[in-house]
């Protein structure tokens, strides 16, 4: 295979754009995945292009072959220098792929199980937080993440990296009309909880089988039109002078408390 | 007051260095605090220098005066451009202070209460994680954070910012010999828990009154010499294919479960 040695190569330019430009990702319906761990999680049928550094090719050749990556089609080798230029990390691992976006619909995730937990992200801005929410959500058995307009792009490279692969396993739905989506959850019998200082203490609540939690923006909390649609209000107890918790931390504490209660119920 | 309009001003150069250089912070025994929220949390007796942008001076003049900041001593005004250059944030709020470091000793935080929770950070690297741990620790009523050698500097500007002020309220001890510190915790009767896949399920454990949790490095977990000193092993339950949780998430789930059990015990 030929080795790409110039940053000016059109493929390299396009990769750089895909890493930076949410609109281009949307238009092409693809996103970029980087790193050997994420590589091992890739749904191969969705992979459109693979880029490997010369060093990574040496180190992982057998593994890539057994994954079916090195069959010659749509795989390009980059000099280490060119790879470092296009990499989003400080210590590049030398593998990158262009992958087709996932497209989940609310219908396909709602009402499929007796017990469901939804995380509803209302203008969540920080890519690291969103990625961590995916990772925790999978661990806590969350059914799906619902992402409202004005949130950061789940295909942002930093989100993808922070999910540690969970983005391939946790269904997520892009919601153009988040208030409408919350109404739909409620109509189907899901109890929707919003965070509020006047709410019930999280640890005094016995959660129903089907729940959704509204998670707001890092600085400004929930938007009014989403907050007003909560069925019930809850409060994560906080000591000291803390005014709020990190959004990913809140989402995790809520999901895990539901998980804990369900485990306890199964044991009793 | 004179306005600093040049990036080449020696004070501006020194501020830049303090933001970047952990060794200089240590030598001068100070760190840099930025942002209006953090400003409001400042222990004024520890403030050595204050830097305000011209815009911030206009916006917050009354507040700064009532805080005692604008008494003329050790306060400098920067043009907005110069402030933006030295700021660590994309949208600078125009206030920065050089503050004396805190110096807590283990003796002053250990054995002071019937119920204690310690978080022991073993080579924790990510500034955002460390800051979030401080913020959650305060909310969960953690007694103190013990920081081992090889962890990131708690006075790194990104840590300070992510604590949202908790760095001024949660005691933390710098531990040159973390294994020795863990031994000291145990000798004083604190039960030390380490995370391990073979450990007991977090939600099956009834925690004793005095506990410590070992929190490891983001990529590599605990170092052997710290891990081997745990009294007991525990496991945060995880569904799906998740191999581990984010370090700040783990620390929070552990601290909050202890908090939950103590609240429940008080209620019964």
From TrEMBL, chains A, B:
<protein>
    <submittedName>
        <fullName>RNA methyltransferase</fullName>
    </submittedName>
</protein>
<dbReference type="GO" id="GO:0006396">
    <property type="term" value="P:RNA processing"/>
</dbReference>
<dbReference type="InterPro" id="IPR051259">
    <property type="entry name" value="rRNA_Methyltransferase"/>
</dbReference>
<dbReference type="InterPro" id="IPR001537">
    <property type="entry name" value="SpoU_MeTrfase"/>
</dbReference>
<dbReference type="InterPro" id="IPR029028">
    <property type="entry name" value="Alpha/beta_knot_MTases"/>
</dbReference>
<feature type="domain" description="tRNA/rRNA methyltransferase SpoU type">
    <location>
        <begin position="118"/>
        <end position="256"/>
    </location>
</feature>
<comment type="similarity">
    <text>Belongs to the class IV-like SAM-binding methyltransferase superfamily. RNA methyltransferase TrmH family.</text>
</comment>
<dbReference type="Pfam" id="PF22435">
    <property type="entry name" value="MRM3-like_sub_bind"/>
</dbReference>
<dbReference type="GO" id="GO:0008173">
    <property type="term" value="F:RNA methyltransferase activity"/>
</dbReference>
<dbReference type="InterPro" id="IPR029026">
    <property type="entry name" value="tRNA_m1G_MTases_N"/>
</dbReference>
<dbReference type="Pfam" id="PF00588">
    <property type="entry name" value="SpoU_methylase"/>
</dbReference>
<feature type="domain" description="MRM3-like substrate binding">
    <location>
        <begin position="9"/>
        <end position="97"/>
    </location>
</feature>
<dbReference type="InterPro" id="IPR053888">
    <property type="entry name" value="MRM3-like_sub_bind"/>
</dbReference>
<keyword id="KW-0489">Methyltransferase</keyword>
<keyword id="KW-0808">Transferase</keyword>
<dbReference type="GO" id="GO:0003723">
    <property type="term" value="F:RNA binding"/>
</dbReference>
<dbReference type="InterPro" id="IPR029064">
    <property type="entry name" value="Ribosomal_eL30-like_sf"/>
</dbReference>
<dbReference type="GO" id="GO:0032259">
    <property type="term" value="P:methylation"/>
</dbReference>
């Amino acid at each position: 295979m030929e080795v790409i040695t110039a940053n000016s190569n059109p493929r390299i330019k396009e990769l750089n754009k895909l890493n930076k430009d949410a609109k281009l990702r949307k238009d092409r319906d693809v996103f970029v995945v980087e790193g050997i761990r994420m590589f091992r999680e890739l749904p191969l049928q969705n992979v459109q292009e693979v880029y490997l550094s010369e060093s990574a090719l040496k180190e992982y050749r057998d593994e890539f072959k057994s994954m079916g990556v090195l069959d010659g089609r749509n795989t390009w080798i980059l000099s280490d220098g060119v790879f470092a230029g296009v990499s989003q990390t400080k210590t590049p691992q030398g593998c990158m792929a262009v992958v087709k976006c996932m497209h989940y619909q609310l219908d396909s995730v709602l009402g499929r199980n007796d017990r469901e937990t939804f995380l509803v992200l209302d203008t969540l801005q920080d890519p690291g937080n969103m990625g961590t929410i995916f990772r925790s959500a999978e661990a806590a058995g969350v059914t799906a993440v619902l992402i409202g307009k004005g949130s950061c792009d789940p295909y942002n490279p930093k989100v993808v990296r922070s999910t540690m692969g969970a983005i391939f396993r946790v269904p997520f739905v892009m919601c153009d009309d988040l208030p409408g989506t919350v109404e739909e959850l409620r109509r189907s019998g899901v109890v929707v909880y919003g965070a509020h200082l006047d709410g019930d203490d999280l640890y005094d609540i016995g959660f129903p089988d089907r729940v959704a939690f509204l998670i707001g923006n890092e600085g400004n909390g929930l938007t009014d039109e989403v907050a007003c649609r909560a069925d019930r209000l809850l409060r994560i107890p906080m000591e000291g002078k803390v005014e709020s918790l990190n959004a990913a931390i809140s989402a995790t504490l809520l999901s895990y408390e539901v998980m804990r209660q369900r485990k306890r119920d199964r044991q009793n």
